[in-house]
Amino acid sequence: MASLSSLQKSIILVLTILVAGANAADIFLTWNVSLDTTLNPITVQQPVITINGRFPGPTINATTNDFVHVNVFNDLDESLLFTWNGIQQRLNSWQDGVSGTNCPIQPGQNWRYKFQTKDQIGSFFYFPSINFQKAGGGFGAIRVNNREVIAVPFPKPEDEFDLLIGDWYYDSYQMIRSVMDTEVVAYQTIPDIMLMNGKVPFGHELTKNHESFTVTSGKTYRFRISNVGTVLSFNFRIQNHKLVLVETEGSYTNQITLDSLDVHVGQSYSVLVTMNQVESDYYIVASPKLINASANSSSLVGVGVLHYSNSMTKLSGPLPSGPDPFDLDFSIDQAKSIRWNLTTGAARPNPQGTFNVNNVTISQTFILESSTSQIRGDPRYSINNVSYRVPDTPLKLADHFDNGSGVYQLDWFPTNSANDEAAYGVSVVTGEHKGWIELVFDNTLGGFMDTWHLDGFGFHVVGIGKGKWGAEARSSYNLIDPVVRSTVQVYPGGWTAVYAFLDNPGMWNLRSQNLKNWYLGQEMYIRVHNDDPNPAKERPPPPNLLLCGKYGNGGDGSQDPVGAPARAPSPWWT
Ligand SMILES: *C1O[C@H](CO)[C@@H](O)[C@H](O)[C@H]1NC(C)=O
Ligand SMILES: *[C@@H]1O[C@H](CO)[C@@H](O)[C@H](O)[C@H]1NC(C)=O
Ligand SMILES: *[C@@H]1O[C@H](CO)[C@@H](O)[C@H](O)[C@H]1NC(C)=O
Ligand SMILES: *[C@@H]1O[C@H](CO)[C@@H](O)[C@H](O)[C@H]1NC(C)=O
Ligand SMILES: *[C@@H]1O[C@H](CO)[C@@H](O)[C@H](O)[C@H]1NC(C)=O
Ligand SMILES: *[C@@H]1O[C@H](CO)[C@@H](O)[C@H](O)[C@H]1NC(C)=O
Ligand SMILES: *[C@@H]1O[C@H](CO)[C@@H](O)[C@H](O)[C@H]1NC(C)=O
Ligand SMILES: *[C@@H]1O[C@H](CO)[C@@H](O)[C@H](O)[C@H]1NC(C)=O
Known about the structure:
The protein is mainly β. The protein has helices at residues 6-22, 173-182, 328-337, 395-402, 515-519, and strands spanning 26-36, 48-51, 60-63, 67-74, 82-85, 110-116, 122-128, 140-145, 159-168, 193-196, 212-215, 220-227, 234-238, 243-248, 251-258, 261-263, 268-274, 281-288, 302-308, 362-375, 378-383, 386-388, 423-425, 428-431, 436-443, 450-454, 459-466, 484-485, 487-490, 494-501, 506-512, 523-528.
């Protein structure tokens, strides 16, 4: 057979992709979301948010470009929204499910999301975005698989496991929320326990069941690990086994072999683990960072079991030790070693490196400092001394009907330095459509990790450093192969810089993934607007658009039966 010319090959490739594109599937899901008071993941009685009776909720298993329809029935006694952490909602912030884009789904009501996993692959998770509900459950994994026609840069694993790990409180999320809503001191308690897929640590005194994975000797498995917690970063490791890092939040990474991996709140990673040890049981450990949790006394160390199918051994002995939890250099060095694999394809066959940043023109720079502040006596979290106040009317709705008028004032927020006075604000700033933005995050929160997330886009993580950021730091940026991800950590007293390409018109939430910080105001919105409908046209509102606030039945949003405020009114709003 004659060999094909490169033109013929290109034509075949294009046709194959067109055919594959036509195969995008529709995935229909119905979720009953309710409060379960009998599940009690730890023997303490507490309400847990379940989806179809499950905690964590069901995995969404999609492929690039699929349409996911999720019909959410809210059986809670309060309003609810889900957000799809890392799913970029191309041209469609209407489906993003945060307080600035959607009216909350009222108790007893349902609402159908329809979103596309457009041009994406990778590991993500979803969670309830309002009312501090994430601390009560309601989260679950999202997988976006490669289309058949696009090679995955490693052999097909024997199986894949979702592993959602996060800190958890013995107090109910409602109790913590009410403390934050009504008291003049912020709820200070650190979480009580680390759960793996909703299960307590192996051997824990509050033993219900622990998490366990059964594997076959000699095979390789993919673990999709997410930090679904509220505040604690953790170090993940498997006794005697190496982790081969392959993916993070939609990007294939350089494949590096690790003994352990730090995962910060809101982040997701895929690692490959080969079962090359003697038939036995092994510990799977997630130990918190920046906390003194001695390996075998603290509930804050998540412990699961890796069980070889022919193992007859019962697990005993000390947990495998990890890095010093206070050793930030270890963590920073590891973070810097995670690079984009420039030669592999992802959602499209083009190498990821086709989209590199080494020669881009930056059109905007925001320098964003996270801090705590007292505003009118209330403890709040801020960005540049401004604490976000959630308006009754979603920004996106106000934008659509009235160009934002009456709900927010565009570009009032100081994007380059802290306001000289601590203030509340509805912070919405312009992001230049099709411009590259440089976002610099400074963490002045004291001894706490912070993590940041922007809906709608990926972060090209160009720099991580100690101390306060200054323009000279730019010379240290990695512009060759920065990894692209949706959530980035910022070390205590340090900075992180990212680039993002604002090619996705919409109203996009920029937030701390640390739940308390977020709930108490550490968020803002970037409005990317495109006057020219060509070539990228933002989608019109969906036919089932919910109305609330200014546009609800009440008209002025004060006490609106259709759409209540996204959060319970609290004293400092008046
Ligand atoms: C666990 O506790 C025991 C007894 O207190 C101690 O001997 C052991 O070193 C501890 N193991 C770890 C990993 O800290
Ligand atoms: C959801 O609830 C409805 C009404 O109670 C019930 O008919 C349906 O079977 C439930 N669906 C699932 C998946 O649990
Ligand atoms: C997820 O979807 C892929 C592609 O359709 C399929 O091959 C795989 O078996 C699914 N996995 C699960 C656990 O359903
Ligand atoms: C952790 O323990 C070490 C040694 O006991 C101590 O020096 C340090 O202050 C502790 N840190 C915290 C945050 O408790
Ligand atoms: C990058 O991906 C390619 C497959 O596209 C693979 O062969 C190569 O080993 C990967 N490189 C690294 C450093 O992981
Ligand atoms: C970088 O940009 C400049 C100006 O736009 C251009 O002249 C040059 O060819 C670019 N270099 C590369 C390597 O793309
Ligand atoms: C909408 O608001 C923006 C920013 O406030 C302003 O520049 C623009 O002129 C307004 N457009 C209309 C149609 O009022
Ligand atoms: C934030 O505001 C407070 C007063 O409300 C002020 O004391 C403080 O200096 C401000 N922070 C910065 C970094 O300007």
